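Support request, please re-run this one:
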Amino acid sequence: MRIPRRLVTMHFSRFSLALGAALVFILVGTVGYAFATNVSRKGAGWYTCRTDEHADVSNYMIVRNNGGQPMCIGAGNFGDDFTVERSSVTRAWADFPNIYLGCEEDGSKDQLCSTDHDTPMKVSAISKDEASVSYSIPKGIVANNAFDIWFNKSGARPVGHDNAAELMIWPGARGLGMAYTKKVEIDGIWWGYDSWNTNPKGLASWHYIRFWRLSNNASGSLSLNLIPFFQYAERAGRLSSGWYLTGTEYGFETCKGGRGETVSKFVDNLVGPGPALGALKPEPKS
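Re-run finished. Output below.
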């Protein structure tokens, strides 16, 4: 899910970026860390209440305050986490605060992309895609938490909206009735599967594919091998091995409330046939 809005970013010279990266490495010792481009500093971390502002955080990841209704998000550091600190969401699917690697549409007929990540990557070239995350949706909130994975028909950096498929994996939700057409077992877990074509006003149609965990855990931790989800969608005729994965997001599709929604320890280890640029090692399974 993406809520189209214009992102405002700052542009730096190549020298400035190199100097900043060197200073950050000296100060915090974290490769891939960058100060947020357009959020406020809060102690050792960051904070924003502005719609669609984003923070550049560790390991080349981006956190985005993506939404159509007021929400404030932040974190105590520039790591792999964020928390919704305030929210006035009252409308279904109004906001999708998320952390991601790869590219995400920014509403300006362009996409905001993380650096040093192997996307777009042809589906047939993916040799490994392992993801893990810890998450929480407090009681009283109406929302789901989800991996949101996007595919484009072209291997060029995407411009505007992806035109092939959106594959969502919902570990759980609160206040939402479960709906699916089939039950499938993937990666040792039972999921409710559903799919349809979307055709929003002003955008090209794409395939929407959803896997909803039947155990429906609104809070917890999860490690998944994503390739079997891609393979199932391909066998169902909803995904093509000739398409390109452009980005993997994780966040909360929020319908009511949202304060206290938290993501941490987000990892997406995407590996193709060649050396991975900026790919992360998955956390060991407990």
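The first strand starts at residue 40 and ends at 42. The helical segments are 14-28, 227-235.
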